[in-house]
């Protein structure tokens, strides 16, 4: 490499290091134009220095790669708690000032940059939505590599660099993310270049990967399918030289692999993609020792290496010496602007890492082509007589989306090996399952360029899809209801990301993350108790109401309507819970659309209240199985107590129950009262944990009269009807609940109550003997 | 191997396969003494055949290993959805009949064994608590290897075999579990023998690991630190021969490694432990083809290979041929008892896998030696004047437990690299951090035999600890509050396990799983929004009330009392939320004990209601930061409205708020009313999401008067007091809430309300300028 290029790289790196340290420490005197005094120092020293010099090094060198190789590059910063580094680079290249014009690229702007960092009302200490050029929050660790692959899918011209910290590398999600290469198509997808940064330490410990003998680490990375390139050292000149060379080799190899695959259309053996293993000291160029203890190159540099700068004059002197060691006077002119040498390797325009449109993916989003739902809807002559598998009906619609995006390639469906099991097999008429390994004659639907993605890791499904959505494309995650809890913490982070993004005018809205939760709690015939958990809805509803949406469509047509809405939405997390087992069709498509638009409504045809303002009782339901049981209970009441005014209410959009001030979909009190009354008994059959409904509705006038049935962990391997009986959600129990709650009915309907209790007894005897459900239940349909 | 041994192994395997298939299909005619007819077949065919022959093979061969090598062995069955296999083996060896005497080891018992499987009121289709010899539910996948290591820690004479399915191997937790060898001490710990069973397919797809070229898989396993031994084939004789040889080699190598380490006390380089890679067809020995499609050796054998046996005579014939192919008449005598040849390799007594005491760990549990809390408690002269870091105080107590179990080695503390950060550093006076890699001079507290376990994977921490507890030992998981959501799904499964175990008289209670959640939502000064999530409590409280306990001790002494209770408890999941930052001491040890025993109580010294039955207002709090704000609010009210009767109630045990019928700790209504009144305003400052309190208390008489403040996702990087202000949990807002809610006060206390609003305005101005909290807040203490 030419000497002046090397020197420019080093100047840029020093400038970034200076700016990173400055953000952690300085409130004033940003250019050190005067000797450092305590009042120049922030009162609270917060942030993470340890990883920052490494991130600065990688950013500096990626700048060069973009220019030299004329490549579109974006980067996912795994150790994103090193926020000061990424902010420093963005400020240097100018993308920060373009995004936040008040933080100018001069001394005044530098002072602002420093002050705002980790300061109340300022910017977060991690890489965050506020950070230009990022799609990856630097808080929770483990998801960088999955995000990087998600960004690379269907972006054939994009190179996604991904810095992986050696701490993060110990997490489970990261450990399995390395296998993503088995799902990346060199023809239609871009490339991922992992840079495993071994600085040796996490918060207070050495890291596992950094302490492995090199041959063992190499063996691991080769086993994951990569070809490692090593760069190690603590002499900046040598490291600059070696890293530039390694990056050139890596990018050349990627280019070669892609060219070969794309010209031959060739599906040879999956290529060994390059990975860079970068070993540099933690907290490199920071204080070597503090108070007699080694800091640089140890875990002690993780956060703030000099903690007492305001109080301890020796620390203050040490900080000044540290900052001056970067020779800021060579890096910034008198006005605080970076010198031409510092900027010599920085790319232009959208090629800058902080300005990549892929990292503000909504800018690239195209509307999803959806055909009219009429093409897929089921005909419903009479409610509750014909059965369909709702997810299979949805599969038809999704297959068309997949087909209609065959050229655009901006829609994917992910799931842990359950597409077929979840009755979405129609998808395979439009695209195969992504797979780069060998394909045997007995295999079905595998394809190197498939856009259905199956891997037995909910973490990978979620991480890939997040990366795909954050870069502006569309998708759906189909998952077993119980096991979506595996990604509870990931969805937390995504919701937080969306919440913060929505407050940033410069971030364009991105397609929503939509879950289809099926194989749900009520139908675990093959699996039983371990597969029964409807609590994801509760988890999600704790989060920012402007982001989260939860739908429980009761049949096939309502599922279609809800899915259409979800797929067209932006910046939401949509949770759709829908069964895959045969389920009664209740609503025509038109009725389904109207019902879903309202989110909750009266099913007049099912009730006996004939337009009364207040019925005797409200039977409410949310979810497919509860809806069936409520309808069966309504039929029993109609038969046995025809004079009772029963209203049937179905809730699709569960947030409708919340107060209007607490969720944008929340009903006003007058709407709620009109549906549920202010003082009549409401027997509510809910799909999940019953107390959720109380949590949502506790402020309503009629809350004292609300009685909720739902899943209460009374599960095992048994029949579908036995499941609802065990949890007191069955039609017979619901009728008993009505009898017990409608004033005056207890006496009048003693016989009916006994009849219901007898039916439950009959059920218990029958399943013990036959192992199947009572014929009267198995063969039930809505009476015409 | 001798021919008759080989033949005995094969007979045992055939018998187990026969019994596994029989469980899936047969309702009667268990020995096929008459031709198979439709009425012999179960009406609902449920279960997983595909993995069963492989599990049977491994079990058969582990039997031999136990005998030949005279070894204590237990096994973790990763593909535990192959429940029929493990049940078959337990029945063959007699441990099943000893556990469930009605399922006798004869034809009648065989019929029972078949009928009960996946039958309502019978046994689950997965390996489950009901299964003798198991510590590992076969439902959710990914945790087998971590459980196996957890079982092996501190069990030097135990060999833990672990069958890992190739589906499960794709999960993140499993992918990182392979690194557990870096934390296993060959001197003090037992050995883990992973058996990676590559049958090639998951539900509907090939698996990643099974399709890797063998050299790549070997490279991966070597990179993980293992030395692979391969066994492949579909010829039973050859596979028996090769597997027996491979197991012999593996066990010999393990014995050698252990002997060497233990005789030399030797801490050489971490050994390469053996792993067996077993490739046999999925659904091996089952139907080769069904309806013209290949089944054996493909994913189609995953569940029930012949689905229409009752309706389709061809399927019925095929089933009969399949079952008869095992030659049951050679395997069972006329009474249905296994022949001597079948049992020739089966071990005796507690050496049988289904009878290992380690798999019913409570039988081995010894009481934890806890010293009197007086040794660790802080002295409290006056409440709210001195500060301690509660977790640091707890650290002193835990250090003694660690020290006092130095010889017994039955207590461990796990955490993701946060022991020191969570102020539990005192632990290192008693034991080091487990670490088998190189140790450098700059490292601190690393030790090959350490019983503090740190790895940056919450999954590993949880999995190891579960395995350790399930085998009867004690432990604690210290974790950042927000990131414990990473293990939401794992704790679900553990709670389900405990719930089912508690219903089995033969399962001895095991030590509870106790979480110390610290670095909580209110004190994320370094990290901000991504690290703020108090929802784990909500998640856990959805689960079985007999298992879950949640404690929010408000200071150091209450934390000690709660921790003591949790560590001595059995069969619970305890969640303790406690801060690590300096926090006021409120209660003396005696007062703390009394308060924690009640779980919730009035702090008379803090209120002004002077024993009134009903005060004007109740200020309630749960959690350390809310307690401080409530006390500060009480002090403000005392100063400005001395005539107002304010009662201060603190809640430590959050389930006390629940109705008595819904949680064993729930208060009776009269108790609740005595604390909170039936009709006075209650302003409740809660640590987490405010609606949780409503969910717990909605049935109480006074619920309409309950007003809860808590975290509502209004987070960022800011100061501690600004966090409570942003979420309306601050002292000033609480006083305003009181003014707004006590009848008649709005007019009387207009001035006070304005004073409070002004204080909030002052706060906003101050932090914007100084970046720190108002001095009046930072320097506040309880007025004496």
TrEMBL record, chains A, B:
<dbReference type="Pfam" id="PF09364">
    <property type="entry name" value="XFP_N"/>
</dbReference>
<dbReference type="InterPro" id="IPR018970">
    <property type="entry name" value="Xul5P/Fru6P_PKetolase_N"/>
</dbReference>
<feature type="domain" description="Xylulose 5-phosphate/Fructose 6-phosphate phosphoketolase C-terminal">
    <location>
        <begin position="580"/>
        <end position="782"/>
    </location>
</feature>
<dbReference type="GO" id="GO:0016832">
    <property type="term" value="F:aldehyde-lyase activity"/>
</dbReference>
<dbReference type="InterPro" id="IPR023962">
    <property type="entry name" value="Phosphoketolase"/>
</dbReference>
<dbReference type="InterPro" id="IPR019790">
    <property type="entry name" value="Xul5P/Fru6P_PKetolase_CS"/>
</dbReference>
<dbReference type="InterPro" id="IPR019789">
    <property type="entry name" value="Xul5P/Fru6P_PKetolase_ThDP_BS"/>
</dbReference>
<feature type="domain" description="Xylulose 5-phosphate/Fructose 6-phosphate phosphoketolase N-terminal">
    <location>
        <begin position="3"/>
        <end position="363"/>
    </location>
</feature>
<dbReference type="InterPro" id="IPR018969">
    <property type="entry name" value="Xul5P/Fru6P_PKetolase_C"/>
</dbReference>
<protein>
    <recommendedName>
        <fullName>Probable phosphoketolase</fullName>
        <ecNumber>4.1.2.-</ecNumber>
    </recommendedName>
</protein>
<comment type="similarity">
    <text>Belongs to the XFP family.</text>
</comment>
<dbReference type="GO" id="GO:0005975">
    <property type="term" value="P:carbohydrate metabolic process"/>
</dbReference>
<dbReference type="InterPro" id="IPR009014">
    <property type="entry name" value="Transketo_C/PFOR_II"/>
</dbReference>
<dbReference type="InterPro" id="IPR005593">
    <property type="entry name" value="Xul5P/Fru6P_PKetolase"/>
</dbReference>
<dbReference type="InterPro" id="IPR029061">
    <property type="entry name" value="THDP-binding"/>
</dbReference>
<keyword id="KW-0456">Lyase</keyword>
<keyword id="KW-0786">Thiamine pyrophosphate</keyword>
<dbReference type="GO" id="GO:0000287">
    <property type="term" value="F:magnesium ion binding"/>
</dbReference>
<dbReference type="Pfam" id="PF09363">
    <property type="entry name" value="XFP_C"/>
</dbReference>
<dbReference type="Pfam" id="PF03894">
    <property type="entry name" value="XFP"/>
</dbReference>
């Amino acid at each position: 490499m030419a000497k002046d290029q090397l020197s420019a790289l080093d100047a840029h790196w020093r400038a970034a290091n200076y700016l990173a340290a400055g953000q952690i420490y300085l409130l004033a005197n940003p250019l050190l134009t005067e000797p450092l005094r305590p009042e120049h120092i922030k009162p609270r020293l917060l942030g993470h220095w340890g990883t920052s010099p490494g991130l600065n090094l990688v950013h500096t060198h990626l700048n060069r790669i973009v220019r030299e190789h004329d490549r579109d590059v974006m980067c996912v910063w795994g150790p994103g708690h090193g926020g000061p580094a990424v902010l420093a680079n963005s400020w240097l290249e100018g993308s920060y000032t373009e995004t936040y014009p008040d933080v100018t690229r001069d001394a005044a702007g530098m002072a602002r940059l420093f002050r705002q960092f980790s300061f109340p009302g300022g910017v977060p200490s991690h890489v965050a939505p506020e950070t230009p050029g990022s799609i990856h929050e630097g808080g929770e660790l483990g998801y960088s590599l999955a995000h990087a692959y998600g960004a690379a899918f269907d972006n054939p011209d994009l190179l996604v660099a991904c810095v992986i910290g050696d701490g993060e590398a110990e997490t489970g999600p990261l450990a399995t993310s390395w296998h993503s290469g088995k799902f990346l198509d060199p023809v239609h997808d871009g490339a991922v270049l992992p840079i495993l940064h071994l600085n040796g330490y996490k918060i207070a410990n050495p890291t596992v990967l950094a302490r492995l003998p090199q041959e063992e680490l190499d063996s691991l990375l080769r086993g994951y399918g990569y070809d490692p390139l090593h760069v190690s050292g603590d002499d900046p000149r040598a490291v600059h030289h070696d890293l530039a060379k390694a990056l050139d080799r890596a990018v050349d190899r990627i280019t070669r692999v892609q060219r070969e695959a794309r010209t031959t259309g060739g599906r040879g053996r999956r290529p060994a993609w390059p990975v860079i293993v970068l070993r540099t000291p933690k907290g490199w160029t920071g204080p070597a020792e503090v108070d007699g203890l080694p800091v640089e190159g140890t875990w002690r540099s993780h956060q703030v290496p000099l903690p007492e700068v305001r109080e301890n004059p020796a620390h203050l002197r040490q900080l000044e010496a540290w900052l001056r060691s970067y020779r800021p006077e060579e890096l910034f002119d008198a006005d605080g602007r970076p010198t031409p040498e510092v900027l010599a390797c920085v790319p232009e325009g959208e090629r800058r890492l902080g300005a990549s449109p892929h990292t503000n993916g909504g800018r690239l989003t195209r509307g999803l082509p959806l055909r009219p739902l009429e093409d897929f809807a089921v005909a419903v002559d009479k409610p509750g007589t014909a059965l369909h598998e709702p997810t299979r009906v949805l599969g038809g619609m999704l297959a068309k989306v997949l087909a209609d995006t065959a050229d655009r390639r901006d829609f994917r469906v992910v799931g842990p090996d359950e597409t077929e099991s979840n009755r979405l097999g129609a998808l395979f008429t439009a695209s195969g399952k992504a797979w780069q390994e060998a394909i045997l004659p007995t295999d079905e639907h595998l394809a190197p360029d498939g856009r259905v993605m199956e891997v037995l890791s909910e973490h990978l499904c979620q991480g890939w899809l997040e990366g795909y959505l954050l870069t502006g494309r569309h998708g759906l995650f189909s998952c077993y209801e119980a096991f979506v809890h595996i990604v509870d913490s990931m969805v937390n982070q995504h919701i937080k990301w969306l919440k913060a993004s929505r407050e940033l005018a410069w971030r364009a809205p991105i397609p929503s993350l939509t879950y289809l939760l099926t194989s749900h709690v009520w139908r675990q015939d093959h699996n039983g108790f371990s597969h029964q958990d409807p609590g994801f809805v509760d988890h999600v509803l704790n989060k920012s109401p402007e982001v989260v949406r939860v739908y429980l469509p009761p049949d096939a047509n309502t599922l279609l309507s809800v899915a259409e809405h979800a797929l067209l939405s932006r910046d939401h997390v949509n949770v759709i819970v829908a069964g895959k087992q045969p389920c009664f069709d209740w609503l025509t498509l038109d009725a389904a659309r109207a019902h879903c638009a309202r989110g909750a409504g009266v099913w007049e045809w099912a009730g006996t209240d004939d337009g009364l303002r207040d019925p005797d009782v409200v039977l409410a339901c949310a979810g497919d199985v509860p809806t069936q049981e409520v309808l069966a209970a309504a039929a029993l009441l109609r038969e046995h107590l025809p004079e009772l005014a029963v209203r049937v209410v179905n809730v699709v959009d569960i947030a409708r129950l919340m107060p209007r001030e607490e969720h944008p979909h929340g009903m006003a009190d007058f709407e709620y009262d009109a549906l549920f009354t202010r003082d009549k008994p409401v027997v509510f059959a809910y799909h999940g944990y019953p107390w959720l409904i109380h949590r949502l509705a506790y402020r309503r006038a009629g809350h004292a009269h609300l009685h909720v049935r739902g899943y209460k962990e009374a599960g095992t391997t048994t029949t579908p009807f036995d499941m609802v009986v065990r949890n007191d959600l069955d039609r017979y129990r619901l009728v008993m609940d009505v009898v017990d709650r409608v004033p005056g009915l207890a006496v009048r309907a003693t016989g009916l109550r006994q009849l219901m209790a007898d039916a439950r007894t009959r059920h218990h005897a029958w399943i013990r003997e036959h192992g199947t459900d009572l014929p009267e239940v198995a063969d039930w349909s809505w009476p015409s």
